[in-house]
Design a protein that fits this description.
single chain, Immunoglobulin-like, Zincin-like fold, eight-stranded mixed β-sheet, five-stranded mixed β-sheet, 27 helices, 20% strand, metallopeptidase activity
């Protein structure tokens, strides 16, 4: 890894076509852990549309150059250097063969070719292929690949690569080979190989056109019993993409491989998806309902990339959201359809709420800090740092707005045109926008600003009712408020915002909607206003009574709405709004307002009190059996501490924690009998089912248990949690019971029951790495107190035999969980959390810069905290800046300190 103290800035404006193109690639691998030989034969030609270059410049990192031939003859004018290989004065069209060596066994970055658990794996996105062989490692260089793998048959009985298997057989000296061909042109970041001792769950299915396809989920032998759900999710994904978008699987086979050492969640390599085990392995004893849902979503996401990312890919990495934002939208729609089909809006809303919670807590925070960037960034130092919430989650919201504007049918027309125009090409976000616009006969020039402007837009709403004229005016004003400097630089003008609105009458029912100038009311009680000016007024006519507005229904755009609802109005919306998302939103607004008021009092030592009306509003939701359990669970969950701290003028995690815990205890004690009744009513006896309905019952029951653990006298909660832990037949209930025991113990100075459950959990699951990740995470995120700060527990766990800093999952389960998901403990006034953070970022930087950079982002918003905390964070950031060497981490900390 090179020291890049003065890294180069890559700018979108500087994009130039490659001087050379590569049409075909034939790779040969002799796989040996400490010295793998790679022979790479390419058909290279000059790009007629690019500027002339005498020399061919190939990227390469951590490679040992052996030799080169051009058209079969040795080529002496090849010069290896730190960043690649230069070939002087090459012909216009030629066959180039390069031989090089790499050391997968020592590759702790997990980028390129590496060894995990004695098996070979690859990760090439974004720039890992250059660690395998010298190449034009950029997404707009697309070629067809043939791959030959050779290895010891005993040590590596399974040899996999992209596409279709052409032949396989034995070789002398105990080795064997397999030869694969991918018939579709692809960029190098989609290359993959796997070799090792693996077994597969197999299924054969027929595509919509009647072609038989082989599906395989490859895992280590002891994990085969945990693959059924991943296979079912893959089959559901294939069927859904055929039905919703008319897109069929285009290869004879599709393979998923699980590996425990992986930087990301999964990777969509053409036909050979490589997954983190976390998103493949599941059975009721080891995986929670959340795990089952995440596996379905991630399997869907990577499969959907087969078209949105693989068949049509990115011209350059600035266009990353072209594939990621679009495919996140597709996986969100898939999960919503799996839960509620196209018509069950309440079930679909549960998924929508979950997605928006993540967006607000993480992406809105990103927009407010030094790493703020547009959905299509203008520059970067290290591309791995731009696999961000903005590119993925805000990018998906941008795609969703097309569907909101044009409807499902209009969106499908745009997708059809997009594939018709660009199948097999590397294109841009603008190409996608033009396809949607042309298919629907619209000018979307203004919509481009969603791609080029950073920051979270704010829409202020003012309303006026004219009873005599029965007119109701809604004035919308858009802007960005006090945006971060990194965001302000990009803002050029007003956005086209699809703003969905409904009007609710005194009886709680939706009113008819008729805009001024229309001849009759709309058939729908939700109207999407196309808000395209800095300020714009929309007037509804024939409004018989003053309504209460239901604003931004279904979260129709990624904006912050500013409207001065009273507490009574929010309680009314929580009780009556027909839009499930806005019903949840009203409760969150009510809780957020109260919690921020209490946090302000806690910060100044003023005694805390919770208004009875808030308790009453929560009681109505808790006892309303007409609402689905999954919706009630989400509605009764208080906003997170991290989100609340973000809403303060100066973030004060300790005050937020005090306020939130006060409200939880107040709701627990005031509604104790109701929580207990809900706990009893929503038990799920019998065999475990990973269905949305059963998951909803478990979620509500376990939320009730978590509130019961807050009682002044938690003896009954401890008894219930202990019994649930002992008798649980699934990980959802067992982990929830353990969490409740830990929280009850934190409030009461510890408990024998909690420690016994922790010890039993480890003994029971010590051979299940993903479950032990949960064991670490539960301890890292538990509530601490002055006598038992969590940092002490975390430091002790670092020395536990099961902890391994080199494994990203294990690092995330302990270090990331503490630093990112336990704000009150991480932001301790003594600065111990910051010192710990700095030590771990520095240690990880030397092993795996990508993982280190993600941890580094825990302090990027340091300027928004109270002065005492800011000083400790600055010291920690400066320590990291003075010691790390990777581009990945330096870009994060230098932007934070700038």
């Amino acid at each position: 890894m090179a020291d890049t103290a003065t890294p180069n800035v890559i700018r979108r404006a500087d994009y130039a076509q490659p001087a050379f193109l590569i049409d075909t690639v034939a790779l040969e691998f002799d796989l040996v852990p400490d010295r793998t030989v790679v022979r790479n034969t390419m058909r290279v030609r000059r790009n007629p549309d690019a500027s002339h270059a005498a020399n061919l410049e190939l990227m390469g990192e951590q490679l040992e150059f052996v030799g080169a031939t051009v058209d079969g003859a040795p080529f002496a004018n090849a010069h290896a250097h730190e960043h690649g290989l230069t070939l002087d004065n090459v012909p216009d069209n030629f066959e180039l063969t390069l031989t090089s060596n790499c050391n997968p066994a020592e590759n702790t970055t997990l980028s390129g070719l590496y060894v995990s658990g004695g098996n070979f794996f690859t990760q090439c996105e974004a720039e890992g292929f250059r660690r395998i062989t010298y190449f034009l490692d950029r997404p707009d260089v697309m070629a067809t690949y043939t791959v030959t793998l050779r290895a010891s048959k005993t040590d590596y009985p399974v040899l996999l690569s992209n596409g279709n298997l052409l032949e396989a057989g034995d070789l002398p000296d105990g080795r064997h080979f397999a030869r694969w061909e991918d018939p579709f042109r692809k960029p190098s970041y989609l290359f993959a190989l796997v070799a090792g001792k693996l077994v597969a769950l197999e299924e054969r299915v027929k595509s919509g056109s009647g072609k038989e396809k082989l599906l395989q989920v490859w895992v280590e032998p002891h994990d085969l019993d945990k693959t059924r759900h991943a296979m079912d999710s893959l089959i559901n994904s294939i069927r859904w993409d055929e039905g919703r978008f008319g897109l069929e699987l285009d290869l004879d086979r599709f393979m998923i491989v699980a590996v425990s050492d992986f930087n990301m969640g999964a990777m969509e390599n053409k036909g050979l998806n490589i997954f983190n085990t976390k998103y493949v392995l599941a059975n009721p004893e080891t995986a929670t309902d959340t795990d089952f849902a995440n596996i379905e979503a991630v399997v869907g996401h990577e499969y959907f990339h087969n078209w949105t990312g693989n068949r049509v890919t990115c011209r350059d990495w600035f266009q990353l959201s072209l594939k990621e934002g679009l495919t996140v939208f597709r996986d969100q729609e898939f999960s919503a359809d799996m839960a509620g089909g196209a018509t069950d809006e309440a079930a679909r809303a549960t998924k929508r709420i979950e997605d928006v919670r993540v967006l607000r807590q993480m992406q809105f925070a990103e927009d407010a800090g030094p790493m703020a960037h547009p959905v299509r960034p203008e520059s970067y130092v290290e591309i791995n740092n731009f696999y961000t919430m903005t590119v993925y989650e805000k990018g998906s919201e941008v795609v969703r707005m097309y569907q909101t504007l044009f409807g499902r049918d209009g969106f499908r027309k745009g997708m059809d045109l997009y594939f018709k125009r660009h199948d097999g090409q590397a294109v841009t976000c603008d190409d996608f926008r033009h396809a949607l616009a042309d298919a629907n006969g619209r000018d979307l020039a203004q919509f481009e600003r969603w791609y080029s402007q950073a920051g979270t837009p704010r829409v202020s709403v003012r309303t006026k009712y004219d009873a005599a004229q029965q007119r109701y005016s809604v004035r919308l004003t858009q802007g960005y408020g006090e945006a971060a400097p990194a965001a302000r630089e990009t803002q050029k003008g007003p956005l086209l915002i699809p703003f969905a609105i409904g009007l609710i009458g005194n009886d709680g029912r939706d009113l008819p909607l008729q805009l001024e100038g229309e001849t009759r009311a709309s058939d729908s009680t939700t109207r999407v206003l196309e808000f395209a000016q800095t300020e714009q007024t929309f007037t509804f006519v024939n409004v018989a009574q003053e309504p209460l507005p239901s604003l931004l229904r279904n979260f129709s755009a990624p904006v912050i709405v500013e409207y001065d609802y009273s507490a009574d109005q929010l309680a009314f919306l929580l009780a009556h709004d027909s839009d499930p998302f806005n019903r949840w939103e009203a409760g969150q607004r009510l809780a957020t307002r109260e919690l921020l008021t209490l946090a302000g009092r806690a910060a100044t030592g003023v005694p805390l009190q919770l208004d009875d009306s808030v308790v009453a509003a929560f009681a109505r939701v808790l006892t309303d059996e007409t609402l689905s359990p999954s919706f009630r669970e989400l509605a009764l969950m208080l906003p997170s501490e991290a989100y609340l701290a973000e809403q303060m003028a100066e973030s004060n995690p300790a005050a937020v924690h005090a306020a939130r815990q006060f409200v939880r205890k107040r709701l627990a004690n005031a509604l104790g009998k109701d929580w207990l009744a809900v706990y009893d009513k929503h038990r799920t006896p019998g065999a475990y089912e990973a269905t949305p309905e059963a998951s909803g019952h478990r979620a509500l029951k376990n939320l009730a248990l978590s509130y019961l653990a807050e009682l002044d006298d938690p003896a009954e909660a401890v008894r219930l949690a202990s019994a649930q832990y002992d008798t649980a037949n699934n990980m959802t209930d067992r982990a929830a019971a353990l969490s409740a025991l830990l929280n009850a113990a934190a409030a009461n100075g510890g408990s024998v029951e909690a420690q016994q459950a922790l010890d039993d959990f480890y003994r029971r699951f010590e051979k299940e790495p993903l479950v032990i990740d949960k064991w670490f995470a539960l301890q890292a995120t538990q509530r601490g107190n002055a006598q038992r700060p969590v940092i002490e527990t975390v430091r002790k766990l670092m020395a536990h035999p099961a902890f391994n800093l080199k494994n990203p999952n294990r690092a995330r389960s302990l270090i990331f969980s503490f630093c990112a998901a336990n704000p009150a403990q991480f932001h301790a006034e003594d600065g111990s959390g910051y010192a710990y953070w700095a030590d771990q970022v520095i240690a990880l930087d030397a092993i795996n810069p990508q993982v280190a950079a993600r941890l580094a982002r825990s302090l990027e918003l340091w300027r928004r905290f109270t002065p005492a905390l800011r000083e400790g964070m600055r010291t920690a950031l400066e320590k990291v800046a003075s010691q790390v060497k990777s581009r990945d981490v330096r870009e994060i900390v230098e932007k934070a300190l700038a």
